[in-house]
User: Fold these one by one.
Assistant:
Number 1:
Amino acid sequence: MTHETELTSPVDLCRPDGRLNRDAVGWTRRPLHTANLRGWGRAKRWEYWAIVTPEHIVGVVVSSLDYAGVHGLYVLDRASGRETSTDAVVPLARGAALPVRSGDGEVRARGGGLEIRISQAADGSSIRATGPGVRLDAEVPLPPGHESLGVVVPWSDRRFQYTVKDIGRPVHGTLALHGRTYELGGPGSFAALDHGRGKWPYSVTWNWAAGAGPDRAIQLGGRWTDGTGSTENALFVDGRLHKIGEELRWSYDRSDWLAPWHIGGERADIRFHPFHEKAARTNLGLVANETHQCFGRFSGWARTDDGTRTDLDGLVGWAEEARNRW
């Protein structure tokens, strides 16, 4: 069992003065936080959906960094390795909508040939995204009893992050790519959400890994939570969350991103075997980013709350390192 506090009632992320509400620190099995951020300049808000099928991996992101909106639509053809990507940077995040509650309201963004609209309701989300050569029309139902990991990471009263990682959701719909239409859904397909709201430090590095398969999913975070008392680690079995409270050890080769990764601790011993690397770099002086997101397959195990060892072999997903000055 984790040492962290499980929250079971709705709570505001911030106090009226905009500082962290210490009663909001903990983790949840469903979204309960209202991200009532105040002030301008360090606030970061984003909604990222990934869709994995046997043929494609799709990423959709709407984000506001206060001074800019950074939005994107990405598709990987798994057989050929071909990437199709459209990114848009909108000054001051004009026109972007990012609700204060995960799973409630409409997310939208437009710019640079890209249009994204995500409708959220109690029974699931609808994702519509278009860019040059791509049109995504997806439904992501929310099964009864399905659990997600919500965590508040407290660096200080002025710097903190609320994140929801919802891994292994069912998905169906269509993906139109370069004149051909593909059906989404069925065996080997899932959707995953990364919902983020917070006040970030200027420079930060994080690791994130997630994967899913039939009746199992894994969510792992590293580095950015170290020393805060919060972790971003969980195992999901049949939709039920098992919180992993220890800081896991990450090992990978920054000179060879496609070499196997290892993530381990007392409750998990996980290998990640990449088959594709998506690299992104920007350097505008004061603002810079370098992200290496690798897609691949997992092997190994993690333990449930009662100590049962759960096999993770065959799960498909990603592992990444991101370095930001923002």
Note: The first strand starts at residue 11 and ends at 12.
Number 2:
Amino acid sequence: MPRIRTLRSRPSGRIALGSLLVAPLLLVAAGCGYGSKAVESGDPKAVGGKKVDGLDQVKVGYFPNVTHATPLVGLRSGGQIPKELGGTKVKTQVFNAGPSAIEALNAKAVDMTWVGPSPSINGYVKSGGKNLRIVAGATSGGASLVVNPKKIHSLEDLKGKKIATPQLGNTQDVALLHYLKTKGIKVDPETGQGATSVLRQDNKEIPTTFQQGGIDGAWVPEPTASNLVSKGGKVLLNEKKLWKGGKFVTTNLVVRQDFLKKHPDAVEAVLRGSVKTNAWIRSHPDAAKKYINEALRRDAGKPLPGKVLDAAFAQIDVTDDPLAATLRKQADHASSVGLLKKADLSGIYDLTPLNRVLKSEGRPAVTDAGLGRK
């Protein structure tokens, strides 16, 4: 199966006030573009019956990461999401990093996508609060700073080293830049140059660069973190240790505002499927790992070794709660390192449909931490 087409972002000068300093992504001339690929052979067949909201298809995006367990399990043929959509087909796209997914959302190449908090914030701010809403959570945790133990022995050894992140402005990029700042280490947020060098590189390329000695470590999501450990790396810092109770949003589900307005039943159907999928994953972890690995084989080109998959899966918590209070803090982190001007995030959430689904399942409502649609 062909590997995912990737696009790297490059610094392109300062962007206007109120925008994240995220370099624009080029569109590929062929395929679906936006650093993604259509998963034609992996698209689940419509279950049949009535089409939700009269739609022929719903276009959804996700990443081939363990932190995207919800779509990796729930979107497959026979999965809960296609079941809830009935006669409406699911059309999927796989992305390599969040900024690419937001580009596709803005261009209406996808209607909904699972994506990290920093790109969600970025997209919302750059559109003046008009392009997306966060409608659910998906994953907490699953991100770590992994280093070459021969080169870096402690957190005090980061100066003068080269550390990779998946993409300029993505969730782990913001986390690394903010952490370095708290340690008094200055880095230019655009170029990644400073007392510590930050290299932006695709998740799938980072392990090779690490083995070749091109980087000294990486702040990355799962399974890349566990993959680096399997290649001799050491977890220097699990990001869970930086958050109260070890909880912080890693992946949430966003939807275009115009799609949510026109097709609320379709959005709610996806949310029902997501909630049921997350409950199933929690109850059947071993079976869930098998589904995840089959999805990674198809979407990323090969499955994970058993030990790597077990280690990666152990680091995540699937959750319907978007952990909105932690997203607010992540926005503050982006502001503190110069990636984002202080911005009003009011209205970034619309959790009304999710809370209807949770109520129908006998579950308590989740909060938007004051950032909900007015």
Note: DSSP finds 13 helices and twelve strands in the chain.
